[in-house]
Specification:
With 661 residues, this protein is of the alpha+beta class. 49% of the residues lie in helices and 18% in strands. Strands 15, 16, 17, 18 and 19 form a five-stranded antiparallel β-sheet that branches. A four-stranded antiparallel β-sheet has the order 4-3-6-5, with helices on both faces. A four-stranded antiparallel β-sheet has the order 8-7-10-9, with helices on both faces. The protein starts with a helix and ends with a helix.
Length: 661
């Protein structure tokens, strides 16, 4: 969502100002053009994030000016019809859908799910399973047969047959042929909810009763439980292989990773080798900056190798996985999240997980009671006759059902008619499992009625929950603010090269290079008579660089001297320096030649100054980003002036005087 990011950035600064006292919330504070703006909106927005600007306390008038500028921009966006475009409406509909989610969940159930997930997050459970596959919409008869098959498997296991042997023989999970049903360690939210619930409740060595999921029936064996290991911050070097890789290419990948490992053991820089050789091209940017992983997020060989690393900087030997060869470097470790760290993350994950249906069902049951839900059984059961077996072949003719005008169910002031359900069935008419018509109709109606009940509640959220209405309006205005500011300022400044050039020329004195030094900062390191080596550096430079030396020439002089001092080394920084860029450059006298020898932590330093460069104007290409930003600010100021002329602003001073910080 655009606004979710944008609102928290520069264009919403006015929303982050200190709180103010409440008063008559229906008073008109400002009139913009012919539209009133109420004091309640101003006070609500200012109070919303009153602690976010630590130490900053703008006056009421400053706060109001920013608020008015915001409302002027939104007014102009509406005048230009930006709120009527298809893209804006789609974006806003998505915003509304996301904002509505918390209001369609039962908070008590949701809180229980979050607490349950947090307790489970403290553990990792190793499990094996045998799957008897069956589709979620399978008919009752097929479901019963699958259950009986699962129970027969469990009986065999109970009598002592080996789990992995039976899994290889009977499991519908194709991976069982290789792993004997062992799926490794699972973590919370890592598998479907019914499977997770069963596994986390079981004891080590226990065999479950059949557990139903969307995949079928599972017989589960728990083989280990251990405390959660937390997260790892790692970097990798990867040489990839896949199903199409030839044996020759696989051998080459293995040889390459071994050579890289030898370089690392000899002291080569991990980040540099990652940038050069890793098949993960994001490493070309990240180098050794790395990424975070949690337990069991990679296949077992990778997971075990990564978690075997003890100290930051440690690396693994090359690890073979199904994706190729990896070398893993540990950067940092983090213990499992605390409750405060985990609860908001878990809440978001649960909202996207199937377990959220548990909370949703409670909400639907409550809504049915609240709005006096009534199902017309006669009109509903008519669909058992209207729907024909051809529906399972996508050939059902819905024309007769679409003519039915009877009420199917009602709630509050909503009436849902038979033809609406018929239309839903016709549009969702697709091949599926053959079962009884009654089973099919009941399943389809459950989804249809749930959607209509939730849609009805969504349509009433503005009236029921003022905080939802206010937040929705904020998103609406925030999206408009984004669109209009992009059109009138950001994109305009980027595209208007003539205007940008003219602005730069008119403000040239703002964009000047200060006086600078063309200099080389030389760091000498080592314990072999370092002071004498630095003196030799200084003498050599004064002798060979009378007319100035670039970085390469300086390095040649230094290398010649350093060769006489075994074990010592040097580094240089060759650039143009202004005051404040480097404390050592600031400390020396700004005159050509070699400075005195300075002391730095673990090093001695000389600054070689080639020449002083006088202050001069910068070129536009050197600072285009800065000038563009300044030009945007200039455009925005002029735009605000124009908007205030177009939409006269009238402030109700009597109301304003009653607002206190």
């Amino acid at each position: 969502m655009k606004y979710s990011t944008f609102l928290r950035t520069a264009c919403a600064i006015f929303m982050l100002l200190p709180g103010i006292a409440a008063f008559n919330q229906e008073s008109v504070l400002v009139t913009i053009g012919d539209k009133p703006v109420y004091a309640s909106e101003f006070t609500r927005i200012l109070n919303k994030n009153k602690n976010n600007l630590s130490g900053q306390k703008p006056s009421i008038q400053e706060s109001l000016d920013m608020f008015i500028n915001f409302k002027l921009k939104v007014r102009e966006a509406e005048a230009q019809g930006l709120d009527t475009t298809a893209s804006f409406k789609k974006e806003l509909a998505n915003n509304r859908e996301q904002l509505a989610k918390p209001y369609l969940m039962d908070q008590e159930v949701t809180d229980e799910l979050i607490k349950e997930a947090f307790e489970r997050s403290k553990w990792e459970v190793r499990a094996s399973h045998i799957l008897v596959g069956i589709k979620p919409d399978a008919p009752a008869g097929d479901t019963l047969l699958a259950y009986r098959k699962a129970m027969n498997i469990r009986d065999r296991l109970s009598k002592g047959e080996k789990f992995d042997v039976v899994a290889k023989e009977l499991s519908d999970d194709i991976s069982a042929a290789n792993n004997g049903g062992d799926i490794g360690y699972i973590t919370v939210l890592g598998v479907v909810y019914p499977f997770e619930t069963a596994a986390f409740k079981m004891k080590i060595g226990e065999i479950s009763m059949p557990v139903r999921t969307d995949f079928g029936y599972h017989i589960i064996l728990v083989t280990d439980k251990k405390p959660a290991r937390g997260k790892l911050h790692i970097a990798t070097i990867w040489k990839s292989i896949n199903m199409t890789t030839s044996e020759e290419e696989k051998a080459k990948a293995k040889e390459d990773i071994q050579n890289i490992y030898l370089q690392l053991k000899s002291g080569a820089d991990f980040g540099e080798l990652a940038r050069k050789y890793s098949d993960d091209r994001t490493m070309a940017v990240r180098g050794d900056a790395g990424f975070w992983i949690g337990p069991n997020q990679r296949e077992m060989a990778f997971d075990q190798a990564a978690y075997s690393l003890k100290n930051p900087g440690d690396i693994t030997e090359p690890i073979e996985t199904s994706l190729g060869w990896f070398i893993i470097r540990l950067i940092d470790k983090k213990s499992p999240d605390t409750w405060d760290e985990a609860k908001s993350v878990l809440a978001n994950q649960i909202a996207r997980d199937s377990r959220s249906q548990k909370s949703e069902k409670v909400v639907i049951d409550k809504l049915k009671k609240t709005y006096n839900y009534k199902l017309d059984t006669k009109n509903y059961e008519e669909f058992y006759r209207l729907v024909e077996p051809s529906v399972f072949e996508k050939k059902w003719d819905a024309s007769q059902a679409l003519q039915k005008m009877g009420i199917l169910f009602s709630m509050g002031d909503l009436s849902v008619y038979q033809y609406e359900f018929a239309k839903y069935l016709a549009l969702s008419n697709k091949k599926g499992s053959v079962r009884t018509i009654a089973e099919f109709v009941d399943d389809q109606f459950a989804d249809f009625s749930k959607a209509r009940i939730l849609d009805y509640e969504k349509s009433r959220l503005d009236k029921k929950y003022p905080d939802f209405r206010d937040l929705y309006n904020e998103f609406r205005d925030g999206n408009l603010l984004f669109e209009i500011t992009d059109k009138m300022v950001w994109s305009k400044a980027s595209k208007d090269t003539v205007g940008l050039t003219a602005y730069f020329a008119a403000n040239q004195t703002k964009y000047m290079w200060p006086q600078r030094l063309d200099a080389v900062v030389i760091f000498g390191k080592g314990e072999n008579n370092l002071q004498k080596m630095m003196e030799d550096y200084r003498s050599g430079l004064l002798k060979k660089c009378k007319d100035g030396c670039d970085g390469v020439s300086v390095q040649n002089v230094l290398a010649e001297v350093t060769a006489k001092y075994s074990g010592n080394s040097f580094e240089i920084e060759d650039k143009l320096f202004a005051k404040g860029d480097n404390w050592m450059v600031d400390q020396v006298k700004w005159k050509t030649g070699a400075s005195d020898i300075l002391n730095e932590a673990n090093a001695k330093v000389i600054v070689w100054i080639n020449k002083l460069i006088d202050a001069r104007p910068k070129k536009l290409d050197d600072i285009r980003g800065q000038v563009t930003a300044d030009y945007q600010d200039n455009l925005e100021k002029q735009w605000i002036t124009d908007l205030r002329a177009k939409y006269p602003v009238k402030i109700n001073q009597d109301v304003l005087s009653k607002i206190k910080l």
